[in-house]
Amino acid sequence: MTTILSAQPIVGPKTAILKEKAQRLKALGIIPKMRVIIVGENPASLVYVNIKEKTCKKIGCDFELLRLPEDVTRELFLSEVQKMNEDPSVHGCFVQLPVPPQLRDIDVTSLIAAQKDIDGFGVQSIVDMYKGKDPFFMPCTPKGILELIKNNDIELSGKNVTVIGRSLIVGKPISLLLQNRGATVTMCHSQTKNLEEHTRNSDIIISAVGSPKFLKQTHFKDNKSQVLIDVGISRDQSGMLAGDIDFEKVKDQVKAITPVPGGIGPLTVISLMENLINAAEKISKGK
Ligand code: NAD
Fold first, then answer.
1. Measured in angstroms, how far is the CA atom of residue 32 from the centroid of ligand 1?
2. Structural domains of the chain in order of their starting residue, each with its CATH number
């Protein structure tokens, strides 16, 4: 039987723990607060922010959203980020990406104050991972992937892992974190030749491309030995949410596979909440 690597058995207990931690902070007079800046009307960004807001409220944290217009000036954008960084009531903050063209040459993730960088995209997190250390704020999707791997007793040391996609938010950080855990990592991307050669020769495949169902049966062995982790979320031709892997066709030939939706997505959100609570706890201890 193929194992379906669902988020729910992990997210349920984690939510209960985070609620309890938020209560304890409240008793000390601290309500963990997340603030998000969103620029423009990107529909996917609005959906993601809405999910984060709901999760914040469910756990007992405050959430503030600042919406800036698509044509916001650089000056106003930068001053709002600075205000967010300096506001002592805010424990964790970020700018929801992407930003419109007039802001694209700004290194947005580096603007966030290090002690509030709950997305884990800032310089301190990158340097830590590069040096072989787990950062205080681990980027949320890689943190969710590692949690899934740990909870399902999937061995990493000495295993061959192929990561498809080399973005700063998924592909690059997860490849470093896996190497730090003893995996032999192959990075694939849009210019990789013979992708199948890499995917078929791996124990674990992690895909973060964003192309619906582009990984087919031929990309994998059919001996139920491989573990597939699908980060991709996009819409297929019929408008349904789909991952990078053709789940229905592939699932019976592999050892374990994540569903989309219900796999890495919810783990990413709960990881963000963990980072927020950790940020608030750290501040409460005056560290
Ligand atoms: P991205 O969109 O920045 O880049 C996509 C990557 O895919 C690039 O590195 C590119 O080289 C690679 N690529 C493109 N075509 C390819 C091909 N034919 N073969 C191999 N590689 C190819 O990456 P991203 O921001 O990491 O997002 C990737 C996907 O993951 C998107 O669908 C996004 O929505 C999703 N995502 C999901 C979560 C989650 O919580 N589940 C979090 C972040 C991103």
1. 31
2. 27-100 (3.40.50.10860), 140-265 (3.40.50.720)
